[in-house]
Amino acid sequence: MTHLDYYLSNKMSHLSIRAAFVHLVQDARDAISELPIWERGFHIFWLLGPFIMLIERSPADFWLSFLALTFVVRSVVKGDGHWLKPFWVRAGFAFWVWCMVASAMSHDPTYAIGETLVWFRFPLFAMATAFWLARDKRLLYAMLVSTGIGLVIMCGILTAEIAIIGSQNGRLSWPYLDLVPGNYVAKVGLPVFTLMVATAVSLKGRLSWIAALIALITLLISVMTGERINFLIRACAGMLAGLVWKPNFTKYVTLVIIEILAVVLVVTVDADMAKRYTDEFIAGAFHFETSGWLHAINGGWIIAKNNLLFGIGTGHFRNLSPILLEGVPYTLIQPHPHNYYIQILCETGVIGFILGVTFLWSIIWTNFRDSFKNRDNVFVATAWVISFGLFWPIATSADFFGQWNNIFLWSAVALALSGRNLIPQSK
Fold first, then answer.
1. How confident is the model at residue 14 (pLDDT cuts 50, 70, 90)?
2. SS (H, E, C) 371-412
3. If you ran DSSP here, which 8-state letter would residue 108 be given?
4. Which pLDDT value is given to residue 409?
């Protein structure tokens, strides 16, 4: 058992947080020193991921893709195929193969097959993390700490943007100069956010209060980014995580009330922000005649109905929607239909939809099943909330086969799936 195992179970409540951090760093150094020499650099590179993702999409994509491909090469060289046995892995490969078939039947097979081939680097990264990079729980804990530090740095950057130039029409864009920082906060930071909330409402002592404070600050920053769905992912996932691991209900209710009041205060101060989270949100979610989001989904559904067997091919929505939706009422031409499940149905057909849903929900089920195998560990007990929140079916979502969104999303899913490495071997 590592030092952090004891600390999170409140058996070392006398230990200062600084001392616990020092022990965790030492555990990580010991774990790396025990690895084969040629593997040490890969694990260190993996631990730097949350900071690389703060730079820009190309370095982040290189980080993820390099580790995924290295995992494949390592598996071939070592003859290691044990990671192919879990159902969610086989479901992912089955979905990928069908995407290739559907793409081959599209009007531009070369483009669609290329999109399918490169997309699979994201599930491969999750497999690499769960079955290689995070197999040692000391390194998994180190990655959670690294992610937490990256989240705090991102919140500091966004706080500086608010102080220096303020929000632009209710949105923030630093450090990417693009309207996606809420994606990092919500998705990359989701594993540590759910961990902090569960810790805040369950444990006693200084750790609990610090976790609650950091969780509250990051939630407020998430509101300030103006990315409504990303905020809802964090808020709902946090409330759910707080319930599923030994909650003190008085502390839970207190934390929820404080967070609600803090969010109300933020949107009250900023008129543009208040409009985004009230009038615009309600209109976008419920007023079909005027909602751009509902029109985008409707466009995807119309295309899907006309291409039920094979779909239009992976990544082809952005190319074909201007043609297929021209003059169709209550539709909106977009690069994607803003819903994962509609996009899968639209681009891969009904068989791809069945396989895709099976793949995504097998990940959720794997995390949920594992949560009962080590109820003493807060991360294992709450990890299913991460995949459940990210793959919630009725949310507006980014491009399922795209780049930037998937880098953020699969980095979080990879950590959730790695919770299996914290389950005792006897179970």
1. very low
2. CCCCCCCHHHHHHHHHHHHHCCCCCCCCCCCCCHHHHHHHHH
3. S
4. 97
How far does the chain reach from its first CA to its final CA, in angstroms? Answer: 16
168 - beta bridge partners? 171
Nearest to 49 by CA among 71, 73, 30, 65: 65
Both tokens assigned to 304: 């899907």
Q: What is the pLDDT of residues 146-184, one digit of tens each?
A: 999 999 999 999 999 999 998 888 789 999 988 899 999
Q: Check: CB of residue 396 under 8 Å from CB of residue 300.
A: no
Helix (H, G, I), strand (E, B) or coil at 168: strand
Q: How many CA atoms lie within 13 A of 294 on its CB side?
A: 14
As a whole number of angstroms, the distance between CA 280 and CA 263 comes to: 17
115-141 core/surface letters (b: 16 or more CB in 10 A; e: else): bbeebbbbbbbbbbbbbbbbebbbbbb
Contact assessment for residue 24 and residue 3, using Cβ atoms and an 8 Å cutoff: yes
For 313: left if phi > 0, alpha if psi spans -120 to 50, otherwise beta; the answer is left
Answer for the pair 113, 401: CB distance below 8 angstroms, yes or no.
Answer: no
**What single-letter amino acid sits at 208?**
S
Query: Apex CA 388: angle with CA 188 and CA 75, to 5°?
Result: 65
* Average pLDDT score, the chain: 91
**Residue 171's beta-bridge partner residues?**
168
Q: What is the pLDDT of residues 396-427, one digit of tens each?
A: 899 999 999 999 999 999 999 999 999 987 65
Q: At what angle are helices 378-390 and 404-417 packed, to 10 degrees?
A: 150
Q: What is the pLDDT of residues 107-149, one digit of tens each?
A: 999 999 999 999 999 999 999 999 999 999 999 999 999 999 9
